[in-house]
Amino acid sequence: MQYGLVASALLVFYVLLLSLAEYVTFALAYLIAAASCVGLLGWYTSYVLSTKKRGVFFSAIVASLYGVFYVVLSSNSFNLILGAVFCFVLIALVMYITRNINWYELGAKDAHQNTKKQPKPIIGSAAKTMDNNPSNDVKE
Question: Where are the alpha helices (DSSP H) in 49-119?
C-alpha cells in the first residue's frame, strides 16, 4: 500500500505541473509542484520509515531528482539523450551501491526494533459465559 501511495504522489506531480502551467510560468509551476510533492513525500516517508532523518534523506533525493529533471527538460536539443543517459547512470549507481545489502534482513531488524510489547488480552467473564452457554453450541 505504501508503494502505491508514494507512486501516486510522484504521479500527481505531473498533474500539478500541467494544471499550474496554464496559469503561471513553467518554471514557477515546476517549482510549486516539485516543492509540494517533495514535502508530501518527506512527511509521509518519515512516518513509514520510522525516523525523521530517513524522511529528510528521501526528500533530498527526490528534490535532487526533480532538479535534474528540470535541467533535462530545459535543454531543448539534448533532452532525450540527457534523460536517457541520466536514468541509466542513476540506475547503475543505485544497483552498485546496494549490491551487498540484504533488504530482507534490514527490514526484519527495523521491524524488530520498532515493535512494542503488546498487552495481553484480558479474558473476562463474558467470554467464559459465552463458552458455557448451551445456545452457542453448534447443532447438527
Answer: 52-74, 79-97, 103-114
Is residue 126 exposed (0-12), middle (13-18) or buried (19+ Cβ within 10 Å)?
exposed
> Residue 116 phi/psi, 5° resolution?
-105, 155
pLDDT by residue (tens digit) across 120-131? 556 655 555 555
Residue 77 Cα to chain centre, angstroms: 33
Pick the closest to residue 44 from 90, 84, 9, 89 (CA basis).
9
Q: What's the pTM?
A: 0.58
> Which residues are CB-neighbours of 16 under 8 A, at least 6 positions away?
29, 32, 33, 36, 37
